[in-house]
Design brief:
Radius of gyration: 22 Å
CATH topology of the largest domain: Aspartate Aminotransferase, domain 2
Distance between the termini: 16 Å
Strand order of the largest sheet: 3-2-4-5
CATH architecture of the largest domain: 3-Layer(aba) Sandwich
Number of helices: 13
Order of helices and strands: HHEHEHEHEHEEEEEHHHEEEHHHEH
CATH class of the largest domain: Alpha Beta
Number of domains: 2
Number of strands: 13
Helix content: 25-40%
Structural class: alpha/beta
Shape: globular
């Protein structure tokens, strides 16, 4: 029938104008930023807002130390560097994630080793982790993907048995819980992101958390040029500092974390209610022992039940003037960065004399991750979305999937 044709096939789109859901800030958040601007104290070197943000973030997570940094990638790099990861070391992580989970390992001239994932939660599989451990393995970067915590009890047990450092990548999971424990409180040293789309945002920004006094001190030095006092340099550091403007917004956003995450949960429920009758779509799960932060809503298309591939389906959905994306369309090790082993030049880190192994990044390395990456579609959960926006997104997905159903 004409009325059910997708817009890409000549039908009428679900919406006349595209959906936009940039963050909407409260007067308190706006005023917090204005006050910093009025003060002129824009850097943490002369202001106290960043320290206040760190203290509150640490308190909420029940850890001793929080170190605010410029962004989430920096937070992971600081965590790896503070943990002593370096040339000749292997670090296990997931290939189904944003590149920073692995590229920061390369920044330390260490080798990313990819373990497979669970097809339901999209998180790294503890069994696959254990299979990838060698005498070179030093750490595991655990990504709590989409806001669903990974299986931390099993991972921590493996790490203890093999004397490995666990680093939690909590970029997508601020406020998520695993068996009553908030993510970012279980690993040795952990990283968060406050990018524009994250569960709380400072535009850019990140945080490192740890209970280890020595790691915290190293992280602070790494953040600020390796400089414990003016013009004294004790290690190789960077300028990874957060600004007072970022911290002011972060501190104000932190007060709304429960509210913002509750809204994400409401949007996720709308999607589930609207889409649960589609047999060609596998919806995301929330296991009973976790509290999902719903950073994004990843669903899987059953390619045996539709006449188009995933990319064609996504193109058709977007033509309905709704917001949809793909997180993530390709496993990391099949990207040119890893296929061509582009690191620091001259073959580093893979040809580092301290390493001595020939690691291969080949198709079939992580079959579950590859399977998911061919089928996944991503629906947004930004709190600024209205109920009608979420319903329209779901209607567009349903319209396209039904039209191309075999």
């Amino acid at each position: 029938m004409e009325e059910i044709k997708p817009a890409i096939e000549g039908g009428k789109p679900i919406r006349g104008k595209p959906i936009s859901a940039f963050p909407k800030f409260t007067e308190d958040e706006i005023n917090a930023v204005i006050e910093v601007l009025k003060s002129g104290r824009l850097t943490m070197l002369v202001g106290d807002i960043t320290k206040r943000f760190e203290n509150e973030f640490a308190r909420i997570h029940g850890v001793k130390h929080a170190i605010a940094v410029a962004n989430g990638t920096v937070a992971l790099h600081v965590a790896l560097r503070a943990a002593g990861i370096g040339p000749g070391d292997e670090v296990i992580t997931t290939p189904f994630t944003f590149v920073a989970s692995a590229s920061t390992i390369l920044h330390q001239n260490a080798i990313p080793v990819f373990a497979d994932i669970d097809r339901e939660t999209f998180n790294i599989d503890p069994i696959s982790i254990e299979e990838r451990i060698t005498d070179k393995t030093r750490a595991i970067v655990v990504v709590h993907l989409c806001g669903h915590p990974a299986e931390m009890d099993e991972i921590m047990k493996i790490a203890e048995e093999h004397d490995l450092i666990v680093i939690e990548d909590c970029a997508q999971a601020i406020g998520a819980e695993y068996k009553g424990r908030i993510v970012g409180s279980m690993g040795k040293i952990n990283a968060f992101s406050f990018y524009l789309s994250k569960n709380i945002t400072t535009g850019e920004g990140g945080m490192v958390l740890t209970n280890d006094d020595e790691l915290a001190e190293k992280a602070r030095l790494i953040r600020h040029h390796g400089e414990p006092k003016w013009y004294t340099y004790v290690l190789l550091g960077y300028n990874y500092r957060m600004t007072e403007i970022q911290a002011a917004l972060g501190l104000a956003q932190l007060k709304r974390l429960d509210e913002l995450n509750r809204r994400r949960r409401e949007i996720a429920k709308i999607y589930t209610d609207e889409l649960e009758d589609l047999d060609a779509l596998q919806l995301p799960v929330e296991r009973k022992h976790v509290k999902h932060a719903w950073h994004i809503y990843n669903a899987l298309i059953d390619l045996d039940k539709v006449r188009k591939n995933r990319d064609e389906i996504v193109k058709a959905i977007k033509a309905e003037n709704v917001w949809i994306s793909v997180c993530y369309p390709t496993v990391l090790y099949l990207e040119p960065l890893f296929q061509e082993k582009m690191g620091h030049g001259k073959g580093c880190p893979w040809n580092c004399p301290l390493y001595g192994r020939n690691i291969k990044y080949e198709k079939g390395l992580c079959p579950n991750a590859e399977w998911v990456s061919e089928r996944v579609i991503t629906l947004p959960t930004q709190p600024a979305l209205k109920d009608d926006d979420a319903i329209d997104i779901a209607r567009a997905v349903k319209k396209v999937i039904k039209y191309y159903h075999i």
